[in-house]
Amino acid sequence: REGVRGVFVNGFMSFAAVCVTVACLIIMGSFLLILFNLNEMIVDLEQENEMLVYIDENYSEAKAKSVGSQLNLISNIREAKYVALDSFVEEMDSDAMFNGLDASTFRDRYVVTLEDNSLMKETEAQIRAVDGVSDVNAPYEIINGFQTVQKVLNIASAVIIAVLFVVSLLIISNTVKLAMYSRSEEIAIMKMVGATNSFIRMPFVVEGFILGFLGA
After folding, report:
1. How much of the chain exceeds pLDDT 90, in percent?
2. What is the mean pLDDT of residues 59-72?
3. Residues 135, 56: contact at Cβ < 8 Å?
4. CA distance 2 to 4
5. Do residues 24 and 172 make contact, with C-beta atoms less than 8 angstroms apart?
6. In this structure, are residues 53 and 80 in contact, taking their beta carbons and an 8 Å threshold?
7. Which of 10, 115, 119, 159 is the most exposed place for a label (fewest CB within 10 A)?
């Protein structure tokens, strides 16, 4: 009862404590949301990276398509999309564009996306072991760049969150201390009439729970 009464009796300090709690949580929450979304954007961009798997030029289209079933058996491959040379030329609708080009440049291929790009080297080795695969083009530089950015972002996130957490604790702690100092006479009178430490402390604990809950 005393804890609930204290919230209303000391209305201004209670209001200040709730406002400080709200401000600290909004600042921390905003930074967490920004960092989380940046991390998700990087993950999405990583998943858009594709490996090109070139099929042996001596393979017919039927045999080239059969390679896809073997590629899909590799655990880290999310999708292996077949692209035939003939269909590629037809889409471009201009035979003149391919004059003077090496046939191997546009030979049948698979566009492969991975579940986990950090396992690209291991996956490339497994792909090269598949019969009918002539060559593999893996964008290691792009993946390494994304991973570097992600590591830097994770470190920066941890540092920023830790700093904001400490600052929030200090601000809230100082607000609570100010509330205690503003009621020092009340506490002194209660001590003089024989109140125990627990009797004095518990209403403050209850009041703190109420203010914390309202702020949250």
Report:
1. 1
2. 80
3. no
4. 6
5. yes
6. yes
7. 159
What is the Cα–Cα distance from 108 to 71, expressed in whole angstroms?
Answer: 14
Q: DSSP assignment, residue 56? A: P
**Per-residue pLDDT tens digits for 162-209:** 888 888 777 777 777 777 787 788 889 988 999 888 888 888 888 888
Residue 76's SS3 state is coil
Mean pLDDT, residues 90-95 taken together: 53
Whole-angstrom distance, CA of residue 53 vs CA of residue 128: 9
Task: Give the tokens for residue 81.
Answer: 């999309």
Element (H, E) at 148: helix 140-182
- Residue 139 CB contacts under 8 Å (≥ 6 apart), including other chains: 49, 50, 51
CA angle 154, 160, 166 (to 5 degrees): 135
> Rounded to whole angstroms, what are the CA distances from 47 to 16, 126, 149, 156?
47, 19, 15, 23
Whole-angstrom Cα distance, residue 125 to residue 136? 9
Distances in Å between the Cα of 159 and the Cα atoms of 34, 163, 196 are 14, 6, 42
Q: What is the pLDDT of residue 41?
A: 84
Beta bridge partners of 77: 114
Residue 87 pLDDT exceeds 70: no
pLDDT per residue over 117-134, tens digit each?
Answer: 777 888 888 888 888 888
Mean pLDDT of the residues in the chain = 79
